[in-house]
Design brief:
By secondary structure, this protein is α+β, with helices and mostly antiparallel strands. Helix content is about 35%, strand content about 25%. The protein contains 22 helices and 30 strands.
Length: about 675
Amino acid sequence: MNREQIIDLIDRKIDFHELKKAGKALEKHYEVRYNKMDAEDVKICLENGHPVAIHGKLIIGYEPMKKAFETADTDFLQIERPVDAVEVCAALPEPEHFVIVGKNEWSTGLDQFYNIIGNLRLGEIYLPKHSAIFNFLNPTEQTKKEKIQSVFKGVQINVYESENYVDNCLHEIGHLFWRTCTRFEEKMQFKELHKYLRQSCIFEYDWERSDAEEVFCTVYKWYMKSVLINKSFYNILEYEEPQGLKILQQVFSRIAKDRIISDVWEMSEADVLEYLNPPFDKTSGKYIRKSGVFNQIKDIELPEHVLNQIQSVQDGVPYIGLGKALVPVYGDMIDWNKYKMTGLEKAEKKQTIFLDMDGCVTNFALAYKQAFDRDVFTDDSFTVTQMCLTQSRFFRTIPVLEKGKELYNRLVKKYNVIFLTTPMADMPYCKADKLAWLKDNICPDPTIIFSANKADYAHSEKDVLIDDMDHNLDSFANAGGTAIDFRKHTNDEIMAKIAETLNPQLIVRAVKQQLKDMQIETEPSEKQKETGNYSKGKIIFKQIPIMIENPKGSMRSGIGQNGVKWLSKLCCHYGYISGTVGNDFDPIDVFIGDDLSSSKVFVINQGFNNLFDEHKLMLGFADINSAREAFLKCYEKGWEKNIMSIGITNTKKLREWMKTGVKTEPFVGDK
């Protein structure tokens, strides 16, 4: 079994508390075997991808370190002797019938239904991609009052009225087809048709022509009647609504073509993957490809399910993953002319900004409200996903967020803007729709990365993400990047924050000016030193508030461990960080060097007799040697023995450490 099938098995929440019940429950969905098994037998099952049910637990893996088996409940089970077990060998095939009868409260009248619809099989081009469950129910007083004939909900279709029920069934299947098989462009054609819809006898009720989807379902119903009942229905449809029939047949032709392409791809996929991912010959130092393969595969069209697996987009060109290769596509074929350009590797002089889509340039909240009459901010993520899945092309029709569009137009003048967006799981058209939406609404040649983990693109403070989701912002910042909350800042503020982050010289100039303007009392009295009540310099260095007690070049003195007074001339500014409390119950000391563009921080763990004393922070130094040398120059000779260790980090992580880090232990730093 593959991982998806195992996860599906776990999600079914089958009761394993009694072994026999477990087997019975499994048999409905899976091929199973009953055996006595010891630990080695279970390991073999797992190696073959077969989960095992033992003692009311579903075994899904083995942990060698613990010498125990992992269960679906995330606990562990040891097997010391042969036990009764149920081996789950494979998932049973899906039912071939398109229609499955669920509840049936009607005493008679389904003969026509069985004769007409029951013989349909999954896979026909004019049917949705999955089966549907029909429930034939007697209407309640409420349904009678509301004049409900049929209700469509997911793949469950409830039919309440026996009169014309075959028509109702076909119409509801049309809704399934519309939502799972039609493309955005095809829906737009029916919307255009709806604008200029003429009177026709095929629309027996007003609601059948109320919007584009209902019009489609009505045309679809008549076409299906011509396939299943009598060809004369086709003649009526062709006469009454020729344009709708033409669009519908174009949809069927497109699906049929894609299936042919899929069949060809299935036969050629191995050759394409081998050509794109050739083995490396260490002897010759070259990649080995079979001769003549390129001519066989160069004109192969890619099926829709492959084209939808977009990994990234470079200047409007989508790149899909085929094996380890990232391959550009043009139309429905591999763009071999651009093949050697892998996505996002093109040289770019401008600095890069990552910009989220949903909630930043798309008005996702408004679209969600309009489509489902629900609030995206109060619904949990699971509900949001399930609602959006009911409209397969939801991401193609979201309104533009004007603030985000204006921000993009400002950003793109100065920076290389990459849209970093998370596609919605289980929605096959999501990536293609997001690309099409950007081309229609923001720019003709966007660059996009599709990723569920945006923190992967945070390597330093100069990696900037603009987003509206807390979990994306937090993970990106924790990984070392700069995260800017789109919701909490104006566009002017966002541009200023980016300029400050990407142009450290602005910070350098500002800090230098602050240092120049300082008014410091360099020779305070002993009483002033004790109380701290004397004039100091105040600066902000990379968002860190610092009080300068001794400027560079001033004299600093103290009493050594031997009781002798020492005096040294400072080679850098010395002070402390406001609002902090170190291990000595005083603010944490800091030395500031001349390299003000550096984001590196060197934390000296000072100690005496191998006992930790306090942290000394070195900011504005390019490397650990210059920081260590400057520190020692500020103290008496022989002070190096008091350096226990030096931890290295950056100013971003330092700010977090100052808030939540442990100050009573040596600082470890980045590994």
